[in-house]
Structures are given as C-alpha cells and as structure tokens.
Prior knowledge:
- This is LacI family transcriptional regulator.
- One of its GO terms (molecular function) is DNA-binding transcription factor activity.
- By secondary structure, the protein is of the alpha/beta class.
- The chain is built from twelve helices and twelve strands.
- It is elongated and about 75 Å long.
Amino acid sequence: MMAGMVKPTMEDIARAAHVSVSTVSRALADHGGTAAGTKRLVHQVAVQLGYTPGDKGRAKTWHSGMVGLITTDLEGRPSLPVLIGAEDALGPMKHSILLANSRGDARLETSRIEQLMSRNIDGLLVVNKSVDPRSPIPRSLIGDTPVVYVYGPSRDPDDCSVTADSRQGAELAISHLIDRGRRRIAVIGGPEHARATSERMIGVKHAFAMHGLRPVAPPRFGSWDVSWGRKATELLLQDDMPFDGLYCLNDRIARGALETLMGHGLHVPDDVAVIGHDNWERQIVDAAVPLTTVDSDCERIGRVAAMALLDAIQGNPHHGMITVSGNLIQRASTSSTALPKKRHPRRRSTRWADGER
Length: 357
C-alpha cells in the first residue's frame, strides 16, 4: 500500500469482491466453513487493495487503533461505567472505542458487529446488562479478532470474561450489618435461579457461617423490582419474625423494602438497617433514607477488561473468568450503631417486644 493512502477496510474488500463483510472476515481468518474459491477471491482483492494477511494467522499486519464495544443495553447499570473504565485504560495506549448498542436483539447484534468488523477493529468488548452467562460471538462472524466478555460472562470457559465478584460483595453486605450490631438479619433476593442471586447467596451463607449466625427467616426470592421489595418486606412483617437488619440483593428491592418499613412506622436504620447491592443511583439519590449498598465497581471492570483485550491484541490472550471485587458504599440506611430505643409500630405484626432482638 502506497504511503499516504487510506488503509482499506473489510467493507472495501466486500464491496470489490461482491461478498458480505462476514464472508471477508471468515476468508481472511482462513475459516474452514468458507469455500476455497471465495477465499482465493477475497485474498486476491485484499492484496490488490493493500490489505494483506499477517503472521500468526492475523488478518492484517497493522493495527487500526480502534476497539469495538457492543452492549446489550446502553442505558443499563453497567454499560456506561464499563465504557468509562475501558476508555481510561485504552486512551493512554492510543486506542479509541467504537460504541454499538444491540438493544438485546440478536439480529441487531450481528449487524452491529459486522459494521464494527468493517472498520477493522483490533478487538471487541462485549458488555452484557446482567451477570447471567451469554452465548459467545460466533467465530464465523469475527474471525480471529480478540474478544473479551464484560460483566456477563461467555458460556465458553475458554473465552476471557471479566465480571463482578458477587460472592465477595454479598459477604461485605452481611459483614457490614453484623459490624453495625445487627444479629437478626433477613435476606430478600431476585429470581432464585439468576446467576446474580445464586452467586450472592453463596456469599451470604459464607458470611453468616464466618460469624456463627443464620438468617432470621428463610430468604425470599422473586424479581429485581421495587414492587417485589415491597411485597417481600410485607411478608416478613406479617410473619412477625423480628429482624434488625435487611440485605436486599439489588437496590431496587432495597428501595421497595425501605418504603414498606417506613410505611409501617419503623425507623431506618434505628429499627432495621437496610443495605442494597449495585449502587444504582436512580434508586438511591431520592430515597427517603439514602441507601447503603455494594458497588460492583463497573469502571474497574471496564479497565480490567480493556487491559485483557490489549494483551490479546498483542498476542497474549487470557482465558477463563476474571472477577473484580466490589466496595461497600455506606450511607444513612445503616449508619446508626446503637440498638433502637424508640419504635413507632402501626400494627401488632411490626411490634417487637423488648428482648426479642
């Protein structure tokens, strides 16, 4: 390629060879599912345009300096912090991010990835809106372009995935309540079989065991919504099982629990200390009592994922799961260290006699 000429893209090759971008990607990666004649044509056009195969099976001998980031939910809790963290890591390394949003639609995801591939990205960050595992991106679509899965891990254990350490975060939450003098602690979770629920419950059980305690009542599982937080808390109060600490597995549940406790005349944190998980500002900033919560540190997850991707681009890929520890963000919902001296119950089911705690 002559000096000063614009570097060709896979889209240029596809247009000249009258094939799709994904076909170009497969052909340049020497993918076994591509016809031999098509491979020859694509390689011939690539050479003519100055886009030649490199060593170690790489489809190009130069780096574009661009990394793709595709998210299933641009407005979701992890996406923007992950993007900020990734930019912090990639910027000093002279890499820019091309952002795409699939909106959780599989067909749109394929289309967006093809568009990113046509820009000759050096690597791809795939961000999921939840920590539930997802299907890996087909190699037929991306060739040998390095991929790192972020927040929601790949189902392929050989892929590199960077996610939150949900177990450690839950241990922080329970230990914090115990450190605040709470001994009768209840737990409200999301969907029972969701990965976030199962991982956080492992941390819950471990923390209770470390302190020689047990939950005051069996954990309740439902949805991730504020409405479930209200309902589950109502059920706890109806059971007339006195509790002085409440760990909710996300902030929406905690927000609903907080509203219900206060609606029954209970003081937070004097009567019940409440803690959430995720540090989701939408649920925290205008709460009647600012919520203590566990922050999964999504910016750090983004930085770690970006550094792992840079390693892969340089020929040193990582494999398996990398977990990032979270942080406890203490606010008013757990700030009191004293046991309650005054209660204002509205009905018998919330009246806890002296000595019951």
